[in-house]
Amino acid sequence: MQTVLDPPMTKVNFDFPFRLDPESARVVSAGSCFAANMADLLAAAGVKCEQNPNGILYNPYSLYDSFRRIAEEIGYTAEDFVECDGLWHGWCHHGSFSRASLEEAVCFAEKERIRFAELLRQADLVILTPASASVFELRENRRIVANCHKLPGTLFRRRLLSYGECVDALEGTVEAVRRLNSFCRIMFTLSPVRHNPGDLVTNARSKALLLAAIHECVDRLPETFYFPAYEIVMDELRDYRFFKEDLCHPNETAVRIVTRSFAAVCFGERVLAMLDEAERKLRRSRHIEIRKG
């Protein structure tokens, strides 16, 4: 018998036709901050998980461009960076790649591009998590950028990618992965982070475009799969208790629930003990820090 304290939940059922060994499998993850949070939990539990060759990326075109450059060995140059407030920022990179000099910025971007080529060659699973079909283009040349880096808004034009552009970008990303590794499995998931909090209609349109494009790719491309992170947060959890104070980003509890759901199906029940142990270690370390403080 259910009570107010034990509300009903709409269970999201899913399965994968494979299982990976959590102690030997090599995973590469790229995409949104939600995907990065999941990858952090898996890595802390002992799964060999690397993430984001260009830092956190949100739109599918920037995801595709990142993997295309890795597969085709297209290096980054000065034209891919811009200086603002004493830092050099990459048009193709997250702010975590910004550096004090142009030389440092290019060198670090190139180092990661080359490193991830080898990681992709060895990967057993590649996880791709786009978050938004809303993109920013430079007005001067219509170049889609991965990040605006807080530059003046007058430099950019914002628009939604078309459905065809989303499909092309996601298929192009799969093709780039396959150039380096024809045997790995590729898993798509859609980030549940709301990226247009001031315009929820645009957010819904953006998610719908990506979701339809993802499923078209999974239906057509072999060894590609879908993990319903978006549906677990929106339909199974379906409560603002599982969001941070900004009401846009899922909180630690939501990330932990989604990660465990994925891990149990992808790696089997044994990985849950690994996640539990990692969580105990984290709690102990936080307790020690509080006592020292």
Describe the structure.
The protein has 293 residues and is of the alpha/beta class. The radius of gyration is 19 Å and the shape is globular. A hairpin with a 2-residue loop joins β3 and β4. The longest helix has 23 residues. A five-stranded parallel β-sheet has the order 2-1-5-9-10, with helices on both faces. The N and C termini lie far apart (45 Å).
Question: Which strands sit side by side, in order, in the main sheet?
Answer: 2-1-5-9-10
How many distinct helices? 8
Strand content range: 5-15%
Low-confidence stretches: none
Quick summary:
With 293 residues, the chain is of the alpha/beta class. The protein is 45% helix and 14% strand.
Topology:
Elements: E1 26-31, H1 33-44, E2 48-51, H2 60-72, E3 81-84, E4 87-90, H3 102-122, E5 125-129, E6 134-138, E7 144-145, E8 156-160, H4 163-180, E9 185-188, H5 200-220, E10 224-226, H6 229-237, H7 252-267, H8 270-292
Parallel strand pairs: 1-2, 1-5, 5-9, 9-10
Antiparallel strand pairs: 3-4, 6-7, 6-8
Helix pairs in contact: 1-7, 2-3, 2-4, 4-5, 7-8
Q: Could you name the key traits of this structure?
A:
single chain, 293 residues, alpha/beta, 5-stranded parallel β-sheet, 3-stranded antiparallel β-sheet, 8 helices, 45% helix, globular
